[in-house]
Amino acid sequence: xxxxARYTQVADDFAVPDSPSAVAAPTLLLWNDVLAQQLNIDVxxxxxxxxxxxxxxxxxVKPVALxxxxxxxxxxxxxxxxxxxxxxGAVADQQQQLWDIQLKGxxxxxxxxxxxxxxxxxxxxxxxxxxxAMHALGVPTTRCLAVVASGETVYRQPPQPxxxxxxxxxxxxxxxxxxxxxxxxxxxxxxxxxxxxxxxHYPEINTTGPERYLAFLANVVEKQIALVVSxxxxxxxHGVMNTxxxxxxxxxxxxxxxxxxxxxxxxxxxxxxxxQGRYAxxxxxxxxxxxxxxxxxxxxxxxxxxxxxxxxxxxxxxxxFAEQFNHAFSQMWAQKLGLDGDQAGDKELVxxxxxxxKTHKLDYTNTFDTLTESLQGSVxxxxxxxxxxxxxxxxxxxxxxxxxxxxxxxMIPRNHIIETILRDYERDGASSMLIDYLAALxxxxxxxxxxxxxxxxxxxxxHNYQTFxxx
Length: 471
Ligand code: AMP
Ligand code: MG
Fold this sequence. Notes:
The protein is an alpha+beta fold. It has a domain at 15-169. The chain is built from 16 helices and 11 strands. Strands 2-8-9-7-6 form a 5-stranded antiparallel β-sheet, with helices on both faces. A two-stranded antiparallel ribbon has the order 1-3. The protein has a two-stranded antiparallel ribbon with strand order 4-5. The two termini are 29 Å apart. The structure holds adenosine monophosphate and magnesium ion. Residues 80-84, 111-112, 115-118, 240, 244-245, 254, 256, 469, 471 line the site of adenosine monophosphate. Belongs to the SELO family. ATP binds at residues 81, 83-84, 104, 116-117, 167, 174, 254. This is Protein nucleotidyltransferase YdiU. Mg(2+) binds at residues 245, 254.
């Protein structure tokens, strides 16, 4: 595995050299062979447990922990950083694109702030399942290469077996990375980071000066909108959209407290610490907008020495977020309903349906799946939607089925199924269900999996379901 260092030139204290702490008895639990091949990862089977637990004996690997700030639930922390993650470096794929290889849970770093730098097996396996499912759903996301059991206990409430998860990302540049340099007044560092982000994610930007960084923000805004729209298309609730968990690439990162919505409701929240519903299903666009505004603030010194002028140039991009989002959001509903063209009354058609879903506590995924298949005559629409569906059918055409089938998954990583798998792992260090489940999640739209349990919402609803940050 040939690793390249990407962040060491940005600024002092940005990529801090730090080695993982070896663990006692690493065992490889999950290995993503397809991803390993795409990334030309040639670590021999016998060495994988050691390498991806952080038991490194290769002096070519120079791990770092990255510094970043973050607005957590709206409150600014200037120094967060990788408290339980080590970036080993980046590997080149077959197209020469670089991908960060990061170990999460491989021990404390200079950013740990008293934390143990470790990860329990449950959150590690959960991140693997969720991120691979999201990738198959076509949602931009970081990926998982491996999960290794550490053979050690992590002291949580209650104590749990430990694990290290290997995360793959197109970069680890966060909104919080810019805030970190901006809060230190490091303009040269900001520029170096923005140029690095542009080279990796937006290489088509070829202007210089303020234009360059305005174009950068415009691109990030576009990517964040696309991300939230694809989350909402599949019913995903991120749960902790802090600026440190917002990647400039527009990929989903940090699967700690995320969950899938079952019954449709814009107000759905699962995270135990999100008491105000800041990160509720229907508030995710507002938060992405707010996070982009925090990025814009960090970029001020790259736009002009005159702050007022810089604000005047950046503001239209932030103020235009809502309109741009609404446009993409309407398109998403049009696809989910296979609407023919763009007509007056479509907005009302969508809101009437969503109102019915909420009133009758209907499952989001299964309702759209049924609507899709009803066009083939293979299933019948629920009686609660019968009157509405007469209006809807007049808006469909011969292409609607294909369009809807690509927008509406049947297989989503349902919370209660993942919990069953995680309980197996916590108790036995393995789950007989997982391999088949991961295989089924690979084709969520045209699934052939013949297991009704996997498609079913929890029998008792999910009113008591809670997620935790996974620390
Ligand atoms: P998260 O909630 O995962 O986004 O983490 C927020 C911050 O807490 C980041 O700076 C993490 O690196 C840090 N953190 C989370 N868990 C741990 C841990 N077990 N040990 C040290 N730092 C941690
Ligand atoms: Mg995080």
